[in-house]
Amino acid sequence: MPAPLLLLALLAAAALPAAPAPDSPERVRVEFRDPAAFVDAAERFPGDPRDTGHLDRLRDHLVRAAEPRLPAGHRLEVTFTAVDLAGEFEPWRGPQWGDVRIVRDLYPPRLGLEFRLVDAAGRVVRTGRRELSDLAFLMKLTGGFRDDPLRHEKALLDDWLRAEFPGR
Q1: 153 pairs with which residues across the strands?
Q2: What are all long-range contacts of 128-132, with beta carbons under 8 Å and residues at least 24 apart?
Q3: d(CA 61, CA 51)
Q4: Helix 151-164 vs helix 53-66: crossing angle, to nearest 10
Q5: From the CB of residue 86, how many other CB atoms can be counted at a distance below 10 Å?
Q6: Residue 90 near residue 102 (C-beta atoms within 8 A)
Q7: Are 78 and 28 in contact (CB under 8 A)?
Q8: What is the model's pTM?
Q9: Confidence of residue 20 (pLDDT cuts 50, 70, 90)
Q10: CB of 111 within 8 A of CB of 86?
Q11: What angle do CA 160, 46, 152 make, to 5 degrees?
Q12: pLDDT tens per residue, range 107-124
């Protein structure tokens, strides 16, 4: 492997988050309440309730983004109650468009969630229910997720985390 590629590979590996120690509890736990009822979390039209790829990626992003924002010893529990991804499938365009999500400003991302922040002693510090949406989502620069099909939802979650847990 040429030296520049090796250096790039080493830098990329160093940027990955470290795995938690096996005996440490999860600091962020994410669940989805009745994902089959979500408006459209599937990657294709019509949606398949077994298709959890987008939900898994949203969970992974939230875990990575929330962990550094939590106070030491605290745990965050998040339950998604609704997921409506940015854009819509437009089946009238024909079957060859079954996996194409048309993103327009009239189809904003919408996420419903409930959360609990628990301290090291197991006491609930904060709870809440939030309905997240961003009607100006297409005007935002989502540089870190530019080629990511979930960039608008991830930006929405990042905005919520910054507002809810601003200290760290």
Answers
A1: none
A2: 128/164, 129/81, 130/160, 130/164, 131/82, 132/156, 132/157, 132/159, 132/160
A3: 18
A4: 30
A5: 24
A6: yes
A7: yes
A8: 0.75
A9: very low
A10: no
A11: 20
A12: 899 999 999 999 999 999
